[in-house]
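Ticket #4471: structure output looks truncated?

Reporter: J.K.
Steps to reproduce: submitted the chain below (229 residues) through the standard prediction queue, then opened the result file.
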Amino acid sequence: MKAVVLLSGGLDSATVLAIAKSEGFECYALSFDYGQRHAIELNAARRLAAALGAAEHRVARIDLRIFGGSALTADIDVPKHSNSAPTGQEIPITYVPARNTIFLSFALAWAEVLGASDVFIGVNALDYSGYPDCRPEYIQAFQHMAALATRAGVQGSPLRIRTPLIQLTKAQIIQRGAALGVDFALTTSCYDPSPDALACGTCDSCLLRRKGFLEAGLPDPTRYRRIPV
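Returned output as attached by the reporter:
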């Protein structure tokens, strides 16, 4: 069985790749150079694809900077916090408009070419940053669309959109990944790392990552400029 796995270079997508491998899939990892603030996550994705045994790893190049609208694709400061994790009650400026819809569409295209049955994505509806395209109802709607819009779907074998992390906390995700042998030192989560790949320690993603490791009871291998509290 073949599967396309969206691989950002973060701990969630690394865990999803490990899960897909553990279920016996031949994994084709797909990452995106979409005009994000830094290339550190792409370097992490390459390391993870190799370490976790992806059959192939491709990087699709699209430039979402032409639209902007996000602190990750425009000249907008990444929000920083002193000592509290984000609540997820508001959609933050780090949300990239329609990003998961774009990414999943690319994944569907590659899956059809490969003859893959499944597309894995590491969205999460619990410990997340309030992004609307990480919710179960969004995934269900995209699954329905995929059944209508692809040759596989029309011929009666629709591709499955797999979201194994969607109801897990960040701590549970870390524990699951650790049990599957994921080396989290290879991953990156920071929205605003330094040129030498030090995590800022104060953005939403750093705070969620640190909180997850603490609650999981596992050492956090992240190199921070400032240790989150």
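Triage note (M.O.): checked the attachment and the full token line is present. The CA atoms of residues 177 and 183 lie 8 Å apart.
Status: closed, working as intended.
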